Every structure is written in C-alpha cells, then in structure tokens.
Amino acid sequence: xxxxxxxxxxxxxxxxxxxxxxxxxxxxxxxxxxxxxxxxxxxxxxxxxxxxxxxxxxxxxxxxxxxxxxxxxxxxxxxxxxxxxxxxxxxxxxxxxxxxxxxxxxxxxxxxxxxxxxxxxxxxxxxxxxxxxxxxxxxxxxxxxxxxxxxxxxxxxxxxxxxxxxxxxxxxxxxxxxxxxxxxxxxxxxxxxxxxxxxxxxxxxxxxxxxxxxxxxxxxxxxxxxxxxxxxxxxxxxxxxxxxxxxxxxxxxxxxxxxxxxxxxxxxxxxxxxxxxxxxxxxxxxxxxxxxxxxxxxxxxxxxxxxxxxxxxxxxxxxxxxxxxxxxxxxxxxxxxx
Length: 338
Fold this sequence. Notes:
There is one protein chain. By secondary structure, the protein is mainly alpha-helical. It has one domain. The chain has 14 helices and no strands. The protein has helices at residues 2-25, 30-38, 42-67, 75-91, 96-109, 113-141, 146-149, 152-171, 187-205, 208-235, 242-252, 267-278, 283-308, 310-314. Helix 3 (42-67) packs across helix 13 (283-308) and helix 4 packs across helix 13. The longest helix is centred in the middle third of the chain and has 29 residues, at 113-141. It starts with a helix and ends in a 24-residue tail after the last helix.
C-alpha cells in the first residue's frame, strides 16, 4: 500500500515537472540556442569532458574505500561498476543504476549483497555531505543571490546533523555477527535478517580514517564539478563568474532528490538558466551551456560505462546466493532493469 502511494506521488510530481518544462521550453529561442552551441570551442569542451570523467573516477575510489573493508579489494571492479551505474542513471528516470551496481559487484566478487549495499549507502551519504559542505562554504564566503544566501542557517544546521550522525556511526558499538544462522522463513523474516546484516556492516566499516578519506574525496569531486561547469561555460563564451557557476551547480543538483526525466534533462537546463539570469546573463545562451554540460556528462559517461562493463548492462546473470534473498532487487535469474 505504501509503495503504491509512493509510486503514485512520484508519478504526479514528475508529471507536474514535465508539464512545467514543456511550458518553459515553448519560451526558448531554440534557433539562437543552437547557433551558440555550434560556436563552441571544442578543445575547451573536451578538457571539460576529461575533468568530469576524473570526478567520476574519484567517486569510484570513494566507494572502493568502503568496499575494501568488506573484502572487495579490486579498484577496477569498483570503477567499472561506478561508470556503468552512472551510465544507467543517465538513461533511467529513477536512480536504477545505484541498485544495479550493488547486484553487479556482489555477484562479481561473491560478496553478500547486504555488505555491498552498506558500502554504497555510506558512499552515497558522502555525496550528500560533499554537497552540504559546498553549500556551507558558498553561503558563508561567496556573494550569492539573496534567495541562496538565506539558506545559510539551514545549511549549517544540515552540516551539524550530518557531523553528529558521522560521529555516531564511528563511535557506535560494533555488533558481532552470528557466524552460523538458520535461514529465516518467510519474506518478512528474510528482509529483517537482511537489514540487520546491512546495519551491522554499516557500523562495522564506519571508522574515522575511512570517513576522513571519503570526505577529502567528496570535496575534491565537487570541486572538479565546479571546474567542469566553468570550463563548459568558457567553451561557449559564456561569461558566468565563479560565484555564478557555484550557484548554478548547487541549484541544478537539488534535482537529484527527484528524477522526473532520464538524467534530469530539461529540469537541469531550466534550473541552470534561471540561476544564470539571476546574474544578469542571457537565458538562451545559458540553456545552450546547460545542454553542453549535460551532453558532455551523459554521452561520454554512458559510452564509458558500456565499454568498461558491457556484461553489467547486457548479460543475464544466473547465480544467486542465499545471502541475497533479502535484497528487494529479486535476483532469481534476473538482471538489473534497464
């Protein structure tokens, strides 16, 4: 029942967003936008592509920091799954790539999926922490528009809550797992056992050194994203200042909460353009830059994901372990939904 309500709510929100995007698109001078795209400096744009791919590499390294603690020591496997998952996220409405890469790594490394899911949960947590850190630094030291600057108390409060939560995870007593346990009967019992396994793994791998490494990587990743946006704007001869680039990055990434379209195409452009207009720049040119940003983020990443892990997307997997039965990704002869 709750799942049906949640799905209906997501559909309604997505429909409202899509209708709004259609109305927004009708006001855009697409001829002028396309002309600006054709005049892009390709060398600078290629450099932006490389910087963006480097940020994705660091995301794979951040996940590997946690994967190593559950016995998955292959950095190559973490990188392949990260690229392939990002590629899937670019073509799916929901973040299906995140769930799929749990299955991929669990099967490839013969590691219980509850443990892999726990490492991914921490990796995703640090994605949010990096965003909040960027927001706090921006509202505290940059001359942002008043609409963004007003979020300073909320940003600091969010950072404080996350810091307390990280301290709790690090200091949380580690619960010893039962080495031999009977297979629970019934799906409720299996899900309950799976979540206990997940929670105990999260507590066991949460350490100060790992969190410190993940935090440094997270800040670096967001810094590379700022650089990617700045380079793309420069390639299109769009004079958006650094503070405007940071504001645009913060605005467009609010959309990761709800993916109404594959890769958030449309919503991304609308948010970027609205932010740029707030800095007195041309809206149509801003849309051209936003299209370039998403083009160099979606196409190269998706192609790299297919090249690095084609079996992740195309090959049907057959092997299932009992430890995976609690995962709500139903893995009996199933492959990740694409």
